[in-house]
Amino acid sequence: MALLDVGAAAPDFTLPDQDGNEMSLSDLKGSKLVIWFFPKANTPG
Hints:
Structural class: mainly beta
Number of helices: 0
Shape: extended
Number of strands: 2
Radius of gyration: 13 Å
Helix content: under 10%
Low-confidence stretches: none
Strand content: 5-15%
């Protein structure tokens, strides 16, 4: 997987929300959004 350049558009992806409903990045187009990623080592999973 290639890294994105600063300012590049994020690729569309789909993940379940906290209620198990699938959400796509494209569903939120035009909204302000914060995406928080953290290493698996810092998670219970």
